[in-house]
Write a structure and sequence with these properties.
Length: 273
C-alpha cells in the first residue's frame, strides 16, 4: 500500500459521493415540501414541458366552461323575460276578447285600450332594457360563445332576436272603436304573437341545452387533463419518504467516510517519528 500527501483520492471519492447524496436529498426535500415531483426544469425537462402544456389546456377549458355558463345565463334571462311577455299577452287576450263583444260601449273599449296600450309599452320596455352583464339581451345579432382548449377552438352561435310590440305584429293594433272589429283584429294578432313567443322560447331552450351539453363535455376534459397533469407533476409521497430515509443515512455515512479518508492522511506523520 502506497501513501501520498499530494492527493487524497479516497477523500475525493467520498466527497463526490457525498455531493451526489446531498443533491438527491435536496431534491427529495423539495418534493416533500411542495408536493410536486418536478420543481425545476432540471428535475424532468420533458415532463415539465408536457405538464405546462396541459395546464394551459386546463386553464382555457375552465374559462370555456365559464363562457358557456355566461351564455346560459343570458339565455335564461331572455327566457324569463319572454315568460313575462307571455303573461302580458295573455292579459291582452282577455282585454281584446272583452272589447270584441257587442255589449261593450265605445267608452268602455277606450278604457280597455288604455290598459292594452300600457301592455304594449311594457313589452317594448322589456325588449329595450333587459340586459345581461351590461349587454342588451334582445338583439337581432347572433352572439358567439367561444370555446377553446388553448390549441383548438370552436364557437356556438346563439340568437334571441329583437323584442318589441311592433316586431310581434302588434304595433298598429287597437281595442278602441265604435264596434268590436278592431279588437277582433287585435285578438288574432295577439294569438299569433303568443305563438311567436312560444317558438322563440323553444329555440332559446334548445340553445340552453346545447350549451349545457358542451359545458358537461368540457368539464370531463378538464377532469381527464387534470388527472394526466397530476400524474406528471405530483410527487409520490411514500416513495419520497422512503428516499428521504435512505438519503439521510447515506449523507451521514458519507460524512463519516470523508472524515475517515481525511484521517488516513494523518497516518503518514507516524513515519516521521
Amino acid at each position: 500500500m502506497s501513501f501520498s500527501i499530494l492527493n487524497n483520492i479516497p477523500a475525493l471519492s467520498a466527497e463526490n459521493q457525498l455531493n451526489s447524496t446531498q443533491l438527491s436529498l435536496q431534491r427529495t426535500l423539495a418534493q416533500l415540501a411542495s408536493g410536486s415531483r418536478i420543481n425545476s426544469g432540471a428535475d424532468d425537462a420533458a415532463g415539465l414541458a408536457i405538464a405546462n402544456g396541459l395546464e394551459a389546456n386546463i386553464s382555457a377549458l375552465n374559462q370555456s366552461v365559464q363562457n358557456a355558463n355566461d351564455g346560459i345565463g343570458a339565455l335564461q334571462v331572455a327566457d324569463g323575460a319572454l315568460g313575462q311577455v307571455t303573461t302580458l299577452l295573455n292579459r291582452a287576450v282577455t282585454l281584446a276578447t272583452e272589447a270584441s263583444t257587442g255589449t261593450v260601449s265605445s267608452t268602455q273599449r277606450t278604457a280597455l285600450n288604455a290598459e292594452y296600450t300600457q301592455i304594449m309599452a311594457e313589452i317594448d320596455r322589456i325588449g329595450s332594457t333587459t340586459t345581461f352583464n351590461g349587454t342588451s339581451v334582445f338583439t337581432a345579432s347572433t352572439t358567439s360563445i367561444y370555446l377553446s382548449d388553448a390549441s383548438t377552438n370552436s364557437t356556438i352561435g346563439v340568437s334571441v332576436g329583437a323584442l318589441s310590440s311592433s316586431g310581434l305584429g302588434l304595433g298598429s293594433t287597437s281595442l278602441a272603436g265604435a264596434d268590436g272589429s278592431a279588437a277582433q283584429t287585435a285578438l288574432a294578432a295577439i294569438n299569433t304573437a303568443i305563438s311567436t313567443i312560444a317558438s322563440d322560447r323553444g329555440t332559446i331552450g334548445a340553445s340552453i341545452n346545447r350549451l349545457q351539453d358542451a359545458s358537461a363535455v368540457i368539464s370531463v376534459q378538464v377532469q381527464n387533463l387534470t388527472a394526466a397533469e397530476n400524474g406528471i407533476m405530483a410527487a409520490d409521497i411514500p416513495t419520497a419518504i422512503s428516499n428521504l430515509s435512505q438519503e439521510s443515512v447515506l449523507a451521514q455515512t458519507g460524512m463519516a467516510a470523508l472524515a475517515q479518508a481525511n484521517s488516513q492522511e494523518q497516518s503518514v506523520l507516524t513515519l516521521l517519528h
